[in-house]
Amino acid sequence: MQILDNRTLLVVTALISIGSAVALISLWRAQHQRNGSGFWASGMSCIALASLLLFGRGSLPDFLSIVIANTLSVIGFLLIYRGVRIFTGRAPITLVDFSFPLLTLLLFSYFYYIDNSINFRIAILSFAFVIICAMTVKTLLAERDAPWRTAGYAVAVMCGLFGLSHGIRGVVALFSTSYSEFLDPSVTSSSVLLSGVFIMGGIAISLVLLSYSVLESKLRILSLAVEQSASAIIITDCTGAINYVNPAFVEKTGYSFDELMGQTPRVLQSGEMNPSEYVKLWREITSGHIWRGEFHNRKKNGELFWEIASVAPVKQHDGNISHFVAVKEDITDLKEAKKRIRHLANHDALTGLPTRTLFMQRLNDALLAENSHNGAVLFVDLDGFKAINDSFGHDAGDQLLIAATQRLSYSIRDIDIAARIGGDEFLILCTEIENQASVKLVAERIVNVLKQPFTYGDTEVAISASIGIALYPQHSDNADTLVKMADKAMYQVKRQGKNNYAFATLSSSPSETPPK
């Protein structure tokens, strides 16, 4: 068999290690968190340097080309092992990291300078590789449920073969006296170095694949999370052109994936929002900040809907913004629920009319309006309601109130406001009245419609209305004062026989409340 040039094999090993180190450094720089690839790159660099020092045997001092070179080889594999432990989530073994290289250095120095034995030096190096490779294989094979286990098994196999070849070489060295120098051109040395070249290449490729498998696993998980998210997710480029939407976005908007690609989010604009909001949003995200807010958008079928959204810039390593991502939730039901809650808080549950609180807000708004016109506040009290409620029960009273509310609503204009403020008491706000006569017409209409009999079951019941009226700005421009004056005027009607209306007077004074 022709003996191979071992120095050439060392150069090939160095080139493979250097190429692997460059690839692993690129992977390390691309990582956002520690995964061991930095130690793998350092380990390959040490192995490359060691190979070059061994190649320089004869030209370099023996301490460098023998002791330091072989110690660097051990350090290189220790760094790869340390990276594997970090990669698998295990803490590095500091004692091994520091004691192993030191022990190797001491033993190589001893068996070179004190008791010169090439066989023992070969055995020390080989068994050091065997121990480190065995620990690496054990660590990788323990991760049986990891998503990268296939690539991990490949690294374990390569390390196992490397350890096995050197184990054989170490045993041969212990029981053979044929070695005359470290790079002895024997079949055993050449075979080990040649197999080492292929195995080192396999280890390098496997480590790169291991790093990529983690990245691919993370990307797959992120992709599945985005695809299956219940939230609508949209990704645009830095100009706002849509690059991606997830299925939830497609389902909620009614647009297909192909229809949205290349479009901008403006396709969803409903025209219900102030354009300045979009200007503010764009200014915020292009400045590198996150924008949070609400959109009132329109689906493909024309249906309006509300969304709460978080829009964030995607920054590259150099800090430049490459994309924008928005995560959105449909809050239409929540908006409707809040609207119903506000309605219930400000409207009477039985009649649906505004409550006293909402009425006073509207009255104050009318009084403070810049183009405020003359207006009137009517205080309406139902005469005889208590007697019907006591005689026929609360259900009859409720039915009567509902019917009376309907008659009141029919008696006033659409721009006027009627509110229920008590059991049988109502307030009416008439805005933009021409004169006092027009208010009289409203009051007379209310009195006339309410004195008409109401039917409850087979029974007809009758009530009437007493109405007090306060005008603004004639009587006052204060809401509370107007209501009090209308209340006083209403009680004046009750004292005079009920079933009528009366205007407040500036000289009116409180009086005792007559029985209803």
UniProtKB/TrEMBL annotation:
It comes from the Bacteria. Residues 291-343 form the PAC domain. Residues 218-264 form the PAS domain. Keywords: Membrane, Transmembrane, Transmembrane helix. SMART domains: GGDEF (SM00267), PAC (SM00086), PAS (SM00091). Residues 373-506 form the GGDEF domain. The chain crosses the membrane at residues 6-27, 39-57, 63-81, 93-114, 120-141, 153-172, 192-215. NCBIfam families: GGDEF (TIGR00254), sensory_box (TIGR00229). PANTHER family: DIGUANYLATE CYCLASE DGCT-RELATED, SLL0267 PROTEIN. This is Diguanylate cyclase. It comes from Shewanella algidipiscicola.
